[in-house]
Amino acid sequence: MLVLVPLSLAAAGATVASVSWVDRAARAHLYDERTVPPAPVALVLGTLVQPDGTPSSFLTARLALAQRLYAAGRVRVLLVSGDNSRPDYSEPDVMKAWLVAHGVPARQVVADYAGLDTYDSCARAKLIFGVDRAIVVTQAFHLARAVSLCRHLGIDATGVADSSVRGDRLTWYRGVLREDLACVKAVWDLTLRRDPVFLGPREHGVQDALATG
Predict the structure, then answer these.
(1) Integer Cα distance of 11 and 128 in angstroms
(2) In Å, how far are 14, 58, 152 from 9, measured between CA atoms?
(3) Domain range for residue 176?
(4) Is residue 46 part of a domain?
(5) pLDDT at site 7
(6) Is 10 within a domain?
(7) pLDDT (tens digit, 9 = 90+) per residue, 15-63?
(8) CA distances from 124 to 116, 200, 212 (A)
(9) Considering the entire predicted model, what is its pTM?
(10) Is residue 5 included in any domain, yes or no?
(11) How far apart are CA 25 and CA 153, in angstroms?
């Protein structure tokens, strides 16, 4: 008990401090889709793709929001970032296919295949794709952390969230609960300034798409 109680208190304190830090860093930069200031790029964060190759309800909601931002002229390029760690699983390919099927020109959708987590997606958007200003698109429970990470990694980021509860409500509430621990990891990653799992040469897809769009 002499060990467990102090450790538990320290863990709780670190969690509360991390969540508070994330909230403060993002609070002034969160908008709804009607009021968000235009930006050159929307960074659309990936999540689960179903075994049949279709986007999950959460991913579909993110993509639909990004498509509306593009159609409204709020952004000119969509950078879709997600997990492609297995040959048979590619969030970015599914995301791009959905957006193209819903009217976004293929040349205006750029895929990042190494967005293995939120930190990597934000860091690679800056380091690999040269994004300086962006609107981050994800679910409401995830948005503050994503915007905070982007801003601390050098992107002038705002955020727009899907706030609907779709599909499995349990998945939504599980996502809400895991955010507390994810905020601790975000602070840790930023403190260490770790490199993304995959770096590589600079990619010019975003700049090329901005030049043509």
Answers:
(1) 34
(2) 9, 34, 27
(3) 26-194+205-212
(4) yes
(5) 42
(6) no
(7) 666 677 888 878 999 999 999 999 999 999 999 999 999 999 999 999 9
(8) 10, 10, 22
(9) 0.89
(10) no
(11) 12
Q: Which residues are CB-neighbours of 101 under 8 A, at least 6 positions away?
A: none
List the one residue out of 206, 211, 44, 63 whose CA is nearest residue 135. Answer: 44
Confidence of residue 169 (pLDDT cuts 50, 70, 90): low
Q: Is pLDDT of 14 > 60?
A: no
Other C-beta atoms closer than 10 Å to the C-beta of 39 total 22
Q: Is residue 186 assigned to a domain?
A: yes
150 pLDDT band, cuts 50/70/90, is very high
Beta strands 41-45 and 77-81, pairing class:
parallel
CATH number, domain of 126, equals 3.40.50.620
Q: Closest Cα partner for 159 from 171, 149, 170? A: 149
How far apart CA 161 and CA 198 sit, in angstroms, is 27
117-128 pLDDT tens trace: 999 999 999 999
Question: What element of type H or E holds 156?
Answer: strand 156-162
Averaged confidence pLDDT in the chain: 89
- Report the C-alpha gap between 168 and 44 in whole angstroms: 21
Based on the structure, what is the number of domains in the chain?
1
Q: For the chain, what is the largest distance between any 2 Cα atoms, rounded to a whole number of angstroms? A: 64
